[in-house]
Amino acid sequence: MTEQMEKKEQCLARFREIFGDGGDIRAYFAPGRVNLIGEHTDYNGGHVFPCALTIGTYAVVRKREDKELHFFSENFKELGVILSDLEDLHAYDAAAWTNYPKGVMWAFLQKGYVFSQGFDFYLYGNIPNGSGLSSSASVEVVTGVMLRDMFGFDVDNVAIAQIGQFSENQYNGVNCGIMDQFSIAMGKENAAIYLDTATLQYTYAPITLEGYKIVIACSNKKRGLGDSKYNERRSECEKALAILQEHKDIRTLGDLTAEEYDALEQFLPDEILKKRARHAVYENVRTKDAVAALAAGDLARFGQLMNASHGSLRDDYEVTGIELDTLVENAWKVDGVIGSRMTGAGFGGCTVSIVREDAVDEMIRRVGSAYEQVVGYQADFYVVSVGGGASRI
User: Fold this and answer.
1) What is the Cα–Cα distance from 14 to 28, expressed in whole angstroms?
2) Residues identified as active-site
3) Local confidence band at 226 (pLDDT 50, 70, 90 cut-offs)
């Protein structure tokens, strides 16, 4: 039995313990994601290069005869069963994690999809919470896949990703781009998604890492995107774009080449806007170069571009901090690490590294030790595989 099937059976058993047996009980899975390169480009009209993981979110759901919503999460079991109602889908703090599935239900209703039955809804995730591997987007997408299946809605996975983004923007108040939901909904085993966030055109790029592993380091510094500087960075990029649009006909910062940006930078009035826009433009260029390097089998070049990405996120975008910098800069010192960078929104969360197989244990030992010395608590490490997208299981 595969690990996913084992987890499914465990979740079904727990659902029956909590909510009782009987009825049409269905199970769903949505992965987490890691972005290999292309950070803070997704709301700037640039390219991203994420892949889905084999860890993710499991949902077990049964329709109710009434409009009540009964939520239980194995990850927050101390909260017990949280009650809500389809007539009362507004967000509030005491609703805790349920604001994510409720937000997607609200978004479906906003988009004109009609359903009038509530659910018993069980959730288990093996994505580290607050890690930057998109546990919230995974919950959103698994809810969307569940609603489509339960009610026969005519929506494809791209639309489910867009509805998930809409709910996060409009319901949960985080001005995120499309990358997280898209990569989770559209993931493909052993491939990353090369996505143009301006047009949603995408191609799958095989991830062939012969002799290498993807290692995630979780800083264990918790952060909430809504109360971080995420929205502030987005606003700074929007200001820079508006000024540059007075001098060149562009829709997004992602439309600019590095040379075009260098010629236009003089029109930005202060150093902060210059740094933010420079990162958005140059990171997009790096992402294109990295995908080409991977296609050519040049892993060393791919790793160099990952390292440059982190430097830009640290110096120009200023979203790393002592935790992520300590993880990355110590990984760079280990022979066999060909690339390491922060991944996700920053301000805590995770790093992603490509590490030669025979150096993985040494990397984890050395980086873990240095991190605990500097930061005062431990990081967690995960050797991950690239998995498929969201589906009923």
Assistant:
1) 14
2) 180
3) very low
